[in-house]
Amino acid sequence: MRKVTEEERTRRKNLLEIIKVHFRKSMEFYLKCNEQTENLLEQLLQEKPVDFQQIKYQIGILTGHMILVENFRLSAEGKMSEGLEYLYDNNNWEKIKKELYEKYIPPQQ
């Protein structure tokens, strides 16, 4: 088994810090995107007639972005495997989509 040198340890640590910064910046970017999408959803709800197909489409985008934000947040904290588990867990997708549908699509009378 090869010994890891101090130089290699430092390089790996620096690389991990660069990756964490990348994930943090990605998370911030998607948080801004989410805010814009939520504003768009609010606008779409004000239009008459309400275009539910467009609202469902935007909810799909927002769901994906919310999943990415949590993935990036965990990864920025150095919990990359937890971030990947969160990303690939279908229950998270369904839960978020359900909450968004309840928030943006009124129940049908």
In short:
The chain has 4 helices and no strands.
Structure overview:
This protein has one domain (6-104). It has 4 helices and no strands. By secondary structure, the protein is mainly α. It is elongated. The mean pLDDT is 91. The protein has helices at 6-46, 52-76, 80-88, 90-104.
What descriptive keywords fit this protein?
elongated, 109 residues, mainly alpha, single chain
> Roughly how much helix do the residues carry, as a percent range?
over 70%
Query: Rough shape?
Result: elongated
Structural class: mainly alpha
Gyration radius from CA atoms, angstroms: 19 Å
Q: Tell me the fraction of residues in β-strands, as a range.
A: under 5%
Largest β sheet strand count, sense and barrel closure: none
Number of helices: 4
Question: Could you list the spans in which at least 5 consecutive residues all have pLDDT below 50?
Answer: none
Secondary-structure map with pairings?
Elements: H1 6-46, H2 52-76, H3 80-88, H4 90-104
Helix pairs in contact: 1-2, 2-3, 2-4
